[in-house]
């Protein structure tokens, strides 16, 4: 077995495919890699996708380069296992996605005019995807919305699908009214119902909040990531101010930390143009 391809840094994707074949070789490969399955690798795939998004959010381009490689490795890993089991190969995966992109962009690769708005292109894209689902015998409106998506993202996708067939509130005000209703039910559940019932009511409130985001043109997942980042930034500011006082958070109390939090918020607002 030659190592020429393995060590050829100019070989591109074929080198990576060969590295994976060697790692998965039942006789000479890595014991850990050999033991992996689609199920065991899937969580790593999700994690790597989030790390790509994190590098983009931080505008860390050298880090993004590395994270994109890690994500590509996940595709190579899954296709290697698919080839071993006789399901598909890397080349068939590449062919399928290439065919899909050509079919979904007739205004670029076909005879259709490019003289259309982004909104019209989005509508055409959805129509093409609907035809693809019909070809796969996905007849239900909600068929094909991946179960493994982050919950907020999946909520929005489910709502968009339902809205296409007219199952949607006509106005944002009605969504807000529903939020008020669900919040009241959650308060009542907290006082009188079981933990499971409280969890259900909380889920209903989150689902409607996702719907409000959709009506407002706000991506709930993106909005919550931004809120998480803001909380992290401000709490770290509180910790820095406490450190200047020779304290750590566990040596402080809520009143002091709340005051430092407000000062941090005020400082951020003062810096805004």
Could you explain how this protein is built, in words?
One of its GO terms (biological process) is response to stress. It catalyses: ATP + H2O = AMP + diphosphate + H(+). This is Nucleoside triphosphate pyrophosphohydrolase. Keywords: Hydrolase. InterPro entries: MazG-like_dom (IPR004518), NTP-PPase_MazG-like_C (IPR048011), NTP-PPase_MazG-like_N (IPR048015), NTP_PyrPHydrolase_MazG (IPR011551), PRib-ATP_PPHydrolase-like (IPR021130). This protein has 273 residues and is mostly helical. The protein folds into 3 domains: 13-103, MazG-like (Helix Hairpins, Orthogonal Bundle); 140-218, MazG-like (Helix Hairpins, Orthogonal Bundle), CATH 1.10.287.1080; 222-271, no CATH class. Helix content is 72%, strand content 0%. The protein contains 12 helices and no strands. The protein has helices at residues 13-23, 31-35, 38-57, 61-84, 90-103, 106-109, 118-135, 151-164, 172-192, 195-216, 220-244, 254-271. The chain is globular. The chain starts with 12 loop residues before the first helix and ends with a helix. The model has no long low-confidence stretch (mean pLDDT 90).
